[in-house]
Amino acid sequence: AQKITQTQPGMFVQEKEAVTLDCTYDTSDPSYGLFWYKQPSSGEMIFLIYQGSYDQQNATEGRYSLNFQKARKSANLVISASQLGDSAMYFCAMRDDRDDKIIFGKGTRLHILP
Amino acid sequence: EPEVTQTPSHQVTQMGQEVILRCVPISNHLYFYWYRQILGQKVEFLVSFYNNEISEKSEIFDDQFSVERPDGSNFTLKIRSTKLEDSAMYFCASSEEGTDAYEQYFGPGTRLTVT
User: CA of B101: which chain A residue's CA is closest?
Assistant: First the structure.
C-alpha cells in the first residue's frame, strides 16, 4: 500500500538559512510521482514541485529543490535562503500510476524566525 | 494564470442539512477531484471524476456524498445529510491528465462547519 511519512511535525529555522523537510514514501508501483505542497495559514494548497520516479535529475523550482533518493525511497524538500513568507505547513505527497488519488503525509509545520 | 476556484469560502450548516460545495476547475483540465482536510489533520482523497463519471473513490465517500458536473464549467460535491464529523476544509482539484506526471492544482478550499 502507498504510504507517505513525514517525521518532523514542526521545525524552526532562522531566516536566510537553508532548510530540509524530510519525506519518505512506500509504494510497490515502479511508476509514481512525488509532490510537495505548501499550505499557509490562509488554508489554500499551493503546488511547489514535482519529481517523477523515472527522472534522472532532481527537480528544482526556484528556491525549491527535491532531493530524490530512489533507493532510500526518500524525497526531501530543500528550501534555500528561507524567507519569512516560507512559514507554513508543508505536505509531501505521492501518486502512483495505478491511482487517481494523491496520498498526503501528515505535514511539517515550518516556522521561519527573523 | 488559470486557477481553480471554489465557492463558498466558508459554509456553516446544521446537522442533517444538505450542502453543495462548488468548484470551477481550470478550463482545459479533464480530471477533477475532491479532497478533505479535518482541522489539524492531513489531506484525504475523497473522489476523482473523469468523462462524467466517478473513476475512483475512497471509503470516506459513502452514500451521503455525490459529485456532479452539471455544466461545462462547474464541479460540485453534495453532502446529503451532514454530520458533525463532516466539518472540514474541502478542496477541489483538477489536472490536465490522469497520470502521475501531472500535478493536481488545488482550489482555495471551502471550510464547512456543521453545528
Answer: A33
A22: cell is 524530510
Residues B8-15 have a mean pLDDT of: 96
pLDDT score of A43: 86
When scoring B33, B100, B105 by the number of chain A Cβ atoms within 10 A, the one with the most, hence best to mutate, is: B100
Is the pLDDT at A18 greater than 90, yes or no?
yes
**If 0-12 CB within 10 Å is exposed, 13-18 middle and 19+ buried, where does residue A22 land?**
middle
Cross-chain residue pair A99–B56, CB shorter than 8 Å:
yes
Q: What is the pLDDT of residues A32-77, one digit of tens each?
A: 999 999 999 888 889 899 999 998 899 999 999 999 999 999 999 9
A contacts of B41 (beta carbons < 8 Å): 106
Give the whole-number percent of chain A exceeding pLDDT 70.
Answer: 100
How much of chain B, in percent, has pLDDT values that exceed 70?
Answer: 96
Distance of CA B50 to the CA centre of its chain: 13
Cβ-based neighbour number of residue B85 at 10 Å: 9
Instruction: Look at residue B99 in the predicted model and tell me its pLDDT.
Output: 60
Judged by CB atoms closer than 8 Å, whether chains meet at B48 and A50 is answered as no
B99 in reach of chain A (CB within 8 A): yes
Q: Which residues of B touch A102 (CB under 8 A)?
A: 33, 35, 43, 45, 104
C-alpha cell at A79: 528550501
For cell 488545488, name the residue. B106
B26 at A interface, C-beta within 8 A: no
Contact by Cβ (8 Å): A21, A110: yes
